[in-house]
């Protein structure tokens, strides 16, 4: 006897093929109620009839089971993410380090500039990445792998891919996740820019990631290493663009020399003084104690040594242009130096600065030589004194601290850098680069003007105005 179901034709593979795999398997379709009296053949037949009845695939979500997530998957739809007026914004100024390639050394076998048999250079710690760059003082642990230098692949400038990578890095930081609005402009040139300004908002929630931690975030540090750039982050405000007071360190900032080392050359104690100076600037020694120790080595030096030093002092690249531009903008300017007053006053005259404050060396009136001591009635210009002078000069000129800027390179500048509205560690010692609010290692001090939102056209106009 033939089975009662043998007459029912089972669907063939060809019959099961239809125009939409999604229609058969999509998650939104309500399940077909299964009658207790239906067998599997009837169910399959019903589904097949439904699929053949239409060639379209309208997806009709079950509103009781499916809700809109609110997430819009779009890379370019900016209109869908309007932020409330007054939302905080952050400015990132990206500098390409054209004079400091990440991997300047190549193996002799592959570099035409080197001869076969040349030895590879000694390993070194990247500047600013550790409290010391002395390999003997680094713990004997395997170094972290260096990121691939992507600027070698995509161009020695802030490329479009570099900028895209930076925005991706920013979007990965906020917790919980939030979409970021951003805009950018090239500050020096449109094609192959060296300096690019990016404004983005909203910033990460400070409860999860504070602004000070954002500045030192490991993801941004890695981005800098990969693309051979430096990123300076500032909170956007009218006072970011309109500063009114700038104070500078002198030695290794406005000038390329360390004055006390130059004096030491006259009496043959340069090595002893330079070692103490280096340790003091790295924060390894108390500044006041180290200053007295160095000054004691200068006993007997003729008092007119400062006049002789003027011919060997080298004003830092871009210092004159920077000061002229700031003067044209109406800035008050000061040099606050842990060096010595005669040269600070000479430098202020050269650069048109309004204030010059430094240490005073005691002079023996009978012999007109240095006694090896500081003038007791004058304060030592150490870290706390520099910060106090910054605040007092600002108060004297009725300038809010948010409209001040400080620039320095040594550990005795850190308090001043943190106190100012913008504190810039300029080509600073390793410890200072790690602890300062911002850092730049450019070739010219005029790079600081970019941090005020000025572009090349603005800087050129200021230079003409100041002449």
From TrEMBL:
Q: Which GO terms describe its biological process?
A: L-serine biosynthetic process
Disordered as annotated region, ranges: 106-151
Active-site residues annotated for this sequence: 249, 251
One cellular component (GO) term of this entry: cytoplasm
> Which parts form a coiled-coil structure per UniProt?
none
Give the Enzyme Commission number: 3.1.3.3
> What top-tier enzyme class does this entry carry?
hydrolase
Name the pathway it acts in: Amino-acid biosynthesis; L-serine biosynthesis; L-serine from 3-phospho-D-glycerate: step 3/3
Protein family according to the UniProt entry? Belongs to the HAD-like hydrolase superfamily. SerB family.
Protein name per its UniProtKB record: phosphoserine phosphatase
- Organism per entry: Penicillium canariense
